[in-house]
Design goal:
Elements: E1 3-5, E2 14-16, H1 22-29, H2 31-40, H3 50-61, H4 65-78, H5 92-97, H6 101-110, E3 115-118, H7 125-130, E4 136-141, H8 144-154, E5 159-162, E6 174-177, E7 182-183, E8 186-187, H9 198-204, E9 210-214, H10 220-225, E10 231-237, E11 240-247, E12 256-260, E13 265-268, E14 283-285, H11 289-293, H12 297-304, E15 307-308, E16 316-318, E17 328-335, H13 338-347, E18 350-358, H14 364-371, E19 377-386, E20 393-401
Helix pairs in contact: 1-2, 1-8, 2-4, 3-4
């Protein structure tokens, strides 16, 4: 077993991550297990109480103590991903990889009316979203423990079976796959090291409509080398890029898509991208990470009447802010140096500063410390490189954030 920190943002102390087996899952699904979980859920299980709480659970429930405490803590962590996971069963690794509820719901909406086979269904988080919109769903996985958990989480109405994703058991369904990108606490960055390996998976599914969830930093060029010709969708939620998703050519008519779930906005490479390059105007805008990662900055600018301040930098400018978007009102512009920036901020009595950097080798946290600011005002500083070659220059914009 591996020691890992759980709960309270990683401050709740250490305990052994449980290796769940079918017997443990059977107990947790039983009436006795449900009652025991309810008892354990009344405990704080915080950094200051964890040792005593585990001792109390062990006294009351003996050998079941570990799975009870682990399940309660996993359910509490799951609240950050799911609207209601209070009765679900998880393993630690399955929860780490499980798709956040709003992201899974978005994918399900795109597959509405289809027959869908989730070939790596794990504990059932994707199937929970798909069953409400797809015409028919089937889940499969190689792990019998996760399948047992999925049966508990989904109920009897969703068909489940044990099968290898590299040997699909359906013929005409859209195949959804979420390859494992972790080995314990370590991430697998090479998609050929996913389980199942992405290159093998794409080869097996080449003649099938398919949807494959990948890490946000997936290499677009590598996908082309693997023969993938469909759409790469980058999705963000709560200001963070959550995933890249591969949609086979038969399911889409574009190559790149950015989906911003916070606002419901989507852009694709089929949208207009005619935007100008000009000096900064009243506002600077740092586009959502999904837009930047998908390479759709110019498309976003064209849609919202913005322009680029440099053709190779993702910062945009405009005379007004797009609705619901945080921006930075430009108060001053100067050639960047620490001395000049410190003087300009001190003249404005700025004591607290947010620093955004793109295209310049500057560590915002280290710079903030070195600036040694004193004052009562707040400001944002955007530091970026403008121009190319010998004409390039690091520029700092002192700004007032819109919120």
């Amino acid at each position: 077993m591996v020691l890992q920190r759980h709960g309270d943002g990683g401050q709740a102390g250490r305990h052994a991550v449980v290796a769940f087996g079918l017997d443990e899952v059977s107990f947790l699904r039983s009436d006795a297990g449900r009652l025991a979980l309810a008892e354990v859920d009344r405990l704080d299980l915080t950094a200051t109480t964890l040792v005593a709480d585990i001792g109390s659970v062990r006294t009351r429930f003996g050998d079941h103590a570990a799975v009870l405490v682990e399940t309660v803590q996993l359910r509490r962590r799951a609240a950050a991903k799911f609207a209601d996971a209070s009765q679900w069963l998880f393993t630690d690794e399955a929860l780490q990889q499980a798709t956040a509820g709003p992201v899974a719901a978005h994918r399900a909406r795109r597959l509405a009316g289809a027959t869908v086979h989730d070939a790596t269904c794990s504990i059932g988080s994707e199937l929970a979203a798909l069953r409400d919109s797809a015409a028919c769903v089937l889940g499969s996985d190689l792990d019998p423990v996760r399948l047992a958990m999925a049966r508990h989480n989904l109920g009897a109405e969703v068909a489940l079976c044990r099968a290898d994703a590299l040997r699909p058991v359906t013929a005409r369904a859209v195949v959804v796959v979420d390859p494992a990108r972790r080995s314990g606490a370590r991430r697998r960055f090479d998609p050929r090291a996913y389980l199942p390996p992405l290159d093998e998976l794409l080869a097996v599914l080449a003649d099938r409509d398919h949807v494959v969830k990948c890490a946000p930093g997936i290499d677009f060029a590598m996908m082309a080398e693997m023969g993938f010709t469909g759409e790469i969708e980058i999705t963000s939620l709560a200001g963070s890029v959550r995933e890249a998703c591969l949609w086979s050519a038969g399911l889409t008519g574009v190559r790149r898509r950015a989906t911003i779930l916070d606002t419901g906005e989507q852009l694709t490479d089929a949208d207009p991208d005619d935007c100008a390059v000009a000096p900064a105007g009243r506002w600077l805008i740092d586009p959502d990470g999904a837009v930047v990662r998908a390479g759709l900055v110019r498309h976003y600018a064209a849609r919202h009447g913005l322009w680029q301040i440099d053709p190779d930098i993702a910062y945009l400018s405009g005379d007004r802010l797009p609705d619901g978007v945080r921006g930075f009102e430009v108060l001053d512009t100067l050639a960047y140096s620490e001395r000049h920036l410190r003087q300009a901020l001190s003249a404005r009595a700025v004591g607290a500063v947010e620093i955004l950097v793109r295209g310049v080798d500057v560590d915002p946290d280290a710079l903030r410390t070195r600036l040694r600011l004193r004052g009562d005002d707040h400001a944002s500083v955007v530091i970026t490189r403008l121009g190319s070659g010998a004409a390039s220059r690091a520029t700092a914009f002192i700004c007032r954030p819109s919120r």
